[in-house]
Amino acid sequence: MELDCLRPLLAEAVHPWLEVGVGSGRFAQALGVDVGVDPALAPLQIARGRGIRGIRANGEKMPFSSGHFGAALIVVTLCFTATPRLLLAETHRVLRGGGVLVIGTIPRDSAWGSWYRAKGEAGNPFYRQAHFLTVAQLLKLLEEVGFQLVAARSTLTQPPGDALQPEAAQEGVIAGAGFLALQAWGGAADLRRLRSRH
User: Fold this and answer.
1) What is the Cα–Cα distance from 140 to 96, expressed in whole angstroms?
2) Other beta carbons within 10 Å of 40
3) Helices 84-94 & 188-196 angle (0-180, nearest 10)
4) DSSP string, 172-197
5) pTM of the model
6) Helix, strand, or coil here: 5?
7) Most CB contacts within 10 A, which of 32, 37, 88, 109?
8) How many CB atoms lie within 10 A of CB 35?
9) What are phi and psi of 163, to 5 degrees?
10) Distance, CA of 27 to CA of 43 (rounded, Å)
11) What are phi and psi for residue 59, nearest 5 degrees?
């Protein structure tokens, strides 16, 4: 369901594509991403086995020239960084002008966000380090670093804990949805044009 939510937002983007926080490469492989960065070596080795060119690097400081990528994907990664604004700004830098950013996130203000936060508070070693953002917080960060939101899709309106039934994604930001995909435009060239006006 998450892949179906994300896929149309990448469909017309120009390659090469980058995933920031690629992990083991499950999303990257399924969506046709070319390159992934992640600070953790073990998941990167799995991603490489899935055919992804994996590079060990932090999303806040990536070893790519400005304007290199036509699209960037960030799936449930922003909640695991202490500096989401910096990660988004660096992603903006490595995207070409008019490049596409696609974010997959679990909104803090959803039943799924609350469920994962409760797991973290109970000591889950993975989720206790997560800091989920509200939709409003994420939209504000995107605007601050120079991205323009152009589309959104939502899924997982079912509550957590039950057996999930297949669910088609809905267009727009659906209140309470457990997974939200955002498409935004922007990149290094756009930022240079913006600065030249001031």
Assistant:
1) 21
2) 12
3) 90
4) S--TT-SEEEEEEE--HHHHHHHHHT
5) 0.91
6) helix
7) 88
8) 22
9) -65, 125
10) 13
11) -65, -20
Give the Cα separation of 69 and 40 in Å (integer).
22
- Looking at this protein, which amino acid is placed at residue 9? L
Give 44-53 pLDDT, tens digit per residue: 999 999 999 9
Q: How far apart are CA 4 and CA 120, in angstroms?
A: 27
Greatest alpha-carbon pair distance for the chain in Å reads 54
CA distances from 34 to 64, 66, 80, 165 (A): 14, 17, 22, 31
**Distance, CA of 35 to CA of 57 (rounded, Å):** 12
| Alpha helix (H) residue ranges in 18-144 | 26-31, 41-49, 84-94, 111-121, 135-144
Look-up of token digits 């600070």: 39
Angle between helices 135-144 and 84-94 (to 10 degrees): 50
